[in-house]
Task: structure prediction
Amino acid sequence: MRISELATVTGVPVATIKYYLREKLLPEGERTSATQAVYGQAHVERLRLIRALVDSGVGIASARQVVAALDDPPDNPNHLLGMAHAAISPPVDEDLDPTAAQELIRRWGWAPETCTPQQVAGVARALDSIERGGFAIPETTMDAYLVGIRQMVEAEIDAIPTTSAEDAVRYVVLGTVLVEPLLLALRRVAEEHVSGERFGGADT
Amino acid sequence: MRISELATVTGVPVATIKYYLREKLLPEGERTSATQAVYGQAHVERLRLIRALVDSGVGIASARQVVAALDDPPDNPNHLLGMAHAAISPPVDEDLDPTAAQELIRRWGWAPETCTPQQVAGVARALDSIERGGFAIPETTMDAYLVGIRQMVEAEIDAIPTTSAEDAVRYVVLGTVLVEPLLLALRRVAEEHVSGERFGGADT
Result:
C-alpha cells in the first residue's frame, strides 16, 4: 500500500509516519520509484506498536531501542525482559542511594544483583518519594503487596508467547507499559469498593 | 519560626513557599508585623504534603482541592476516598465509552454505579489504550489481577487510620499517589525474578 493508505489504515497522519521513518522507528517501504514506496502488514503492526509506546509516554529514543530489540532479538527471553524494561525506564539517578531498595528486594526473597540497575533505581526512587512525602507503608500492607504482586506476575509470565522473540518482546513491552495504568485504575476502583464494604454508607 | 527557617527545615525554597502561600495551598503564618509572620509545625507538615503531591505529578489546582479536603473533611471515610481520588485524577474524557470498563468492574463483582466517574474513566482510558496498542490481556491474567489487587487493597484499607479525618485523607491521598510508583517498580522487579525462575539463565 502507499503511505496515504498506511495512514488511513492505522489512523496515523502521513506527516507523523514520515517523522517515524526519518527517526528510524519505522523501516523504509519498498521503493517503486525515486519518490514512491509501498508498505506492508509489517509496517501496520510496527506503527501500532510505536503509537502504543508513544501514547504511553515512552520517548522517541526509548521507542527506537525497543524497536531495535525487535529487529535483533537476544536468545534468552529473560534478557529480553531486562532490555525491554531498560528501554522504557527513565535513566538511573546516580544520586539516589539504592540501599533501601536492595534491602526490600532481598526481604522479598530476591537477589538485587540479578535486577537491572533501572529496576533497582525504580524501587529506590519510589521509596525515596514515599519517605520525602512523610508516608510510611505498614509492614502488613507491604507483605500483602508481595503476595499480590507475585500472584499477578506469575500469571503474566506464564502468558508470555514463546512463538517468536518478536512476539515475546512486544508482549513484555506492551504488557508492562500498557497494563500499568490499568492496574492503577483497578486498584482505585478496588479501594472504593473495599472501603465501601468496610465503612458502609456508599452513596448512590 | 520565620519563613527562612521554614525553608531550611523543609528544604523548600522561600520563593516556592511564597508561591504556595499566594496559591492558598499553604495557610498564612501568624503575623507579627506588617511584613513578618511566624510559622509552626502544621506548616511544616502541610509543606511536606504539598511537596509530595507536586513531586508525584499532581497539579496545583488538584493539590489545592486535596488541601481543601484536609481543612474541611467530610464525615464518612468512604466519601473521603472518592474525593481524594477525584482530586488526584485527570478530568473525565467525555468521548471515551465507559461500557467496557463498566463490564469489567461488574465482572469483578462490583457495581460501577458506586464508583466515581473518574474511577470508571481511569479504567476506560487504560482499556482503550491497551486496545489501541493491539494488546489483549488473557483471561487467566485478568483473573490473577483481580485476586492480587483485592489482596493488596484489603490490607491498605485495613491500615487507614481512624484517628481523625485529616489523618485518613492524608493517608488515602499519599497512599494512592506515592505508592503507585512503588507498586509498578516492584512489579517490574517481580517480572525479572519470576521470569528468571521460569526461563533460567539469569546472567550475573
Observations:
- The radius of gyration of chain A is 21 Å.
- Chain A touches chain B through 89 residues (CB under 8 Å).
- Chain A has a mean pLDDT of 85.
- The longest helix of chain A spans residues 179-199.
